[in-house]
Design a protein that fits this description.
Two copies of one chain form a homodimer. Chain A is built from 15 helices and ten strands. By secondary structure, the first copy, chain A, is an alpha/beta fold. The longest helix of chain A has 23 residues, at about 210-235.
């Protein structure tokens, strides 16, 4: 096991109707005047925003509000939020929504206490000070609810950049599985796939002697295998949603990924697919992962055999471990298909003739040096073959 | 799953030579003058205390020191520590040792900022303010390194009482598995047993639909099964120690126990054994758990069958699940014997004729009402039978 630091100071408040505790939690973490930050109309229509306001009223905490956060949140709204907070004397940011809303809230929180342009933080300056942020999550395991990261897109040039710092880790995050119930089945399946991807990216390690984190990752994958089909079959199944939501949060805090090298090649390779075809990230991962794993398998047959046996219930072929390893990859692919995810380029809406372009942007876009690294180091030929496996 | 709150804000710094980062971490968490608090001479003899001091010197952080913490830490030393901190202007407490040293440090941290008698906190007053505490752990998973709890014994009347509050949660805890290497094999085995007990107490739940936490507990039990014998066979095996240490910490933060009722009957029943015979807590648990589980098994056969199959690798007897359930309990008992733990009253040094006394103190001591509750509710006859199963 490698040396590591594990720091996850966010207070997770989990369960039914927990959004009604927003006021109490803002107060506990020192807020006296709140900005409620959110995205589109669904939090208004569902009545969630009203419940949050009622909860703040109950604690006599005044608030202002700012909606309009879009996927890939923009700098323009961040500037607007910063101005509003300064004008109104806001000292606590409450994000109601998914990852984009939380990321936008973190940017505002850092910007309010900074005299310069908040974009400095997204150009490399570390965030050392920020207003406290709390979140009420409307999508399972956005990730941002427990992290010190934020990604914002600057309108000029559409520059997408990240900033980090312990100061922007949420003080609390309210996780009510019932709030995720309005999503369509395809989005739910894409979310499940994304959580499993976060687990596989951690599982595929070159670090030896990591039994405890191997076992924890396997535990969360087994949970997804059990609960995924249940929530797809019955979107009102609160218990299945609750198990998935906590598994997703546990995957994100990285308690199961500490002390080991990680992969993340599937995320890199998928990124070009969702960028070019505007498909759901999870759907892209469903097509990408079996291809990447098939290509990576010879790099460490026993690791893939282990996950096949321990997670997918395959019988170990002791004479031919690669048979077991392949069976595990097939089982994962079939699982993803069973919850409604696409299985190849065609179903995803991707085109074989785009492969050279995909590989080029992947390896040379954004200042890339011609290779990407994780569980393995991949060059042009490798990446081309992997995309071809998806056709 | 039940609603829950999960809050574990401690920064865990894990790995080889991490004690040399003490100074850097004290600085990060705002300390400018430190009390180094420790127990006996082993931290002096091993050179650990010197390394910690060197690390503080490197950051130009002045310190005073106070040793002499004993198991079941006493109020006298706490008063002494509070006076010393006030006199010297200490603003950070650094605990170097195990659970007792950390508990004593937390008491001092709360007492320094309080005008009254610190014992008020151990008489029911909540701790809302305390000096920051950091820890350097010398024993795997003492528990106190990540908790907001502290237990102190008042010399007058030997009253043992607990206090709690988020304010006394350690800001950081340094976990270097190599620092635990000096313990004798019997103590290591007792520690392993204690960690497994913390997992079983969480596993035995009456809450339904808790797949994610079931799986996480099973993951940590599987880790202990794999790593326990390795560290007993080779005390210098750093990797086995590292896996055990992180598993123990994960068990304690309760991320695998949230949202479900828990048991803790084995802990209650064992407590009377270590109190009367002064045996190691873990050794007492090794004798207690198989007896308690045997008695509890009919309460939920399928739960015991599940752990037998998933953790102990037993074959499921679908026609007779109780056969599988029993096989799992036997496998656990044999595991504990294999790492050197006692298997019955005789090996523990307990006496059959004391059973009525044990039951009486268990059920009626400390204001007890004649029953104890967890996975089941037990009365006099139940507890008598359980102790008899240990003979």
């Amino acid at each position: 096991m490698e040396n590591f630091e594990f720091y996850s100071p966010t207070c997770f408040v989990f369960g039914k109707e927990t959004e009604n505790r927003a006021g109490e939690l803002v107060k506990r973490f020192g807020g006296t005047k709140v900005l409620i930050h959110y995205g589109g109309g669904s939090v208004v229509r569902s009545g969630l925003l009203d419940r949050v306001k009622t909860s703040l009223d109950k604690e006599n905490i005044p608030y202002v509000e700012l909606g309009g956060v879009k996927p890939n949140p923009r700098s323009g709204l961040v500037y607007e939020g910063i101005d509003l907070c300064k004008k109104e004397g806001v000292d606590f940011i409450l994000a109601v929504g998914g990852g984009s809303t939380i990321d936008s809230s973190k940017a505002i929180a850092a910007g309010v206490l900074y005299d310069g342009d908040f974009w400095d933080f997204y150009s490399g300056k570390p965030i050392t000070e920020a207003l406290p942020v709390g979140t009420i999550l409307t999508i399972a395991a956005a990730g941002s609810e427990g992290s010190g990261d934020s990604v914002i897109t600057k309108e000029e040039g559409m520059l997408k950049r990240g900033a980090s710092g312990n100061a922007i880790r949420p003080k609390f995050s309210i996780l009510n599985p019932a709030l995720t119930q309005t999503l369509p089945a395809y989005q739910i399946a894409a979310g499940i796939t994304d959580i499993m991807a976060h687990l596989y990216e951690r599982y595929l390690t070159n670090t030896e002697e990591v039994e405890v984190t191997d076992r924890l990752i396997e535990a969360l994958l087994l949970t997804m295998i059990h609960e995924g089909p249940r929530v797809i079959a019955d979107p009102d199944n609160y218990e299945a949603r609750a198990n998935i939501m906590w598994a997703g949060t546990m995957a994100h805090t990285n308690s199961c990924g500490v002390g080991r090298s990680q992969d993340w090649l599937s995320h890199m390779i998928e990124h070009e697919l969702s960028a070019l075809y505007d498909c759901a990230h999870g759907a892209g991962l469903a097509v990408t992962m079996p291809a990447v794993h098939t290509y990576e398998m010879p790099h460490n047959v026993m690791r893939f055999a282990q996950v096949a046996v321990r997670v997918w219930g395959c019988q170990m072929d002791f004479a031919h471990p690669e048979v077991t390893a392949k069976a595990g990859i097939e089982a994962f692919r079939n699982y993803l298909i069973s919850i409604g995810m696409p299985k190849n380029f065609e179903e995803l809406g991707a085109k074989e003739e785009d492969i050279p372009k995909l590989v080029d942007v992947l390896l040379h876009g954004n200042g890339g040096n011609g290779t990407i690294s994780g569980f393995m180091t991949l060059g042009e030929e490798d990446c081309t073959k992997i995309y071809q496996l998806m056709v």
